[in-house]
Amino acid sequence: MNNNDILRRLRYTFDLKELEIVDIFAAADGIAAQEQVTSWLKKEDDAGYIEMLDVEMATFLNGLINTKRGKREGPQPEPEKRLTNNIVFMKLRIALNLQAEDILDIMSLAEFNLSKHELSSFFRKPDNRHYCECKDQILRNFLMGLQKRFRA
After folding, report:
1. Can you say how many angstroms the Cα of residue 141 is from the centroid of all Cα atoms in its chain?
2. Do residues 4 and 48 lie in contact, with contact meaning Cβ atoms separated by under 8 Å?
3. Which Pfam families match (predicted)?
4. Measured between alpha carbons, how far is 84 from 95 in angstroms, rounded to an integer?
């Protein structure tokens, strides 16, 4: 999935206004102008569309964690320069304070079933032998389940 699509889905799920997205960036010590956010939220074929970089999405997700759960003490984490679906999934899990059962319930709202073992494989380190890459379909269904849970 591309970062712009993830941002659009999260914006809809949590009913975020453009200024709120700017504030989420600020919560992670990031800077985003409202015009920039507007360009990210446009569809790919619209004039003025700008592709959101991985580091920008990582900053947004870090800000979402800080907004939803509060800033942790000490230095803030550096945004990743390269994002994977696994990292996006993990950051959303942290931001929303979700346990495995919560995620499985959310996935079932999207009519997508996973076992606990499959789920845990997405949150392991890449060098772990039980690590599994989170495919677009899984992240898309998780975002759809979030939408059904928070926008019902």
Report:
1. 13
2. no
3. DUF1456 (PF07308)
4. 17
CA 62 to chain centre: 9
N-terminal to C-terminal alpha carbon distance within the chain = 24
- Note the pTM of the prediction, 2 decimals: 0.94
Q: Answer yes or no: are the C-beta atoms of 5 and 43 closer than 8 Å.
A: no
Per-residue pLDDT for 119 more than 80? yes
Q: What single DSSP character describes residue 130? A: T
Q: Enter the tokens of residue 18.
A: 């453009």
How many C-beta atoms lie closer than 10 Å to residue 100's C-beta?
14
Spatial separation of the C-alpha atoms in residues 53 and 29, rounded to whole Å: 17
Structure tokens at 130: 């039980």
Here the tokens at position 118 are 């499959």
Distance CA 60, CA 9 (A): 13
